[in-house]
């Protein structure tokens, strides 16, 4: 199995410096342009069997651009949605610090502060998606998701523990290529933006 794990293009929240999470912001014009370039690049370099996307607009629009280019439909899966950030969704980051302060000791992995999804539940959601994905028949799959979700997918892919302090950056339409072959999990490349 070969997996192209892709973050969505630039969204309106990026420009407005707002928390996204479950806030359903669309792509900016630049984000749409990034998605179009990504789609052209993917169709020129890979034969895709299946596309799975978060249903949030910024990811789904990116996935639909790829789908149009390669000629296959998008399957939406809510398990790929970004971390549910509860009351922070859509808030200006500067104001959220004041309205929703973190405890001095920081957020614990089980915390559901301000109606947020706990990190344990976020990881479990992504682990469930990963487990089901490993049963898929398709050989080449595109996954379009969000930065936080991609980090959780990395943790699942690499069998990292729940308390890991490892995080990986993914830029706008950044592409990660993973392979699952003969029981091995291989990272071919990470956060490629060569298409831009």
Structural class assignment: alpha/beta
Order of helices and strands: EHHEHEHHEHEE
- Give the CA-based shape: globular
- Strand content of the residues, in percent? 15-25%
Give the strand order of the largest sheet, numbering strands 1, 2, ... along the chain.
Answer: 3-2-4-1-5-6
Main β-sheet: number of strands, strand sense, barrel status?
6 strands, mixed
Poorly predicted tracts of residues: none
State mean pLDDT (0 to 100 scale): 97
Give the % helix: 25-40%
Radius of gyration: 17 Å
Distance between the termini: 26 Å
What's the helix count?
A: 6
**Total number of beta strands:** 6
Outline the fold blueprint.
Blueprint: E1 2-7, H1 12-16, H2 29-45, E2 50-53, H3 57-70, E3 74-76, H4 93-99, H5 119-133, E4 140-145, H6 147-157, E5 175-181, E6 184-192
Parallel strand pairs: 1-4, 2-3, 2-4
Antiparallel strand pairs: 1-5, 5-6
Helix pairs in contact: 2-3, 5-6
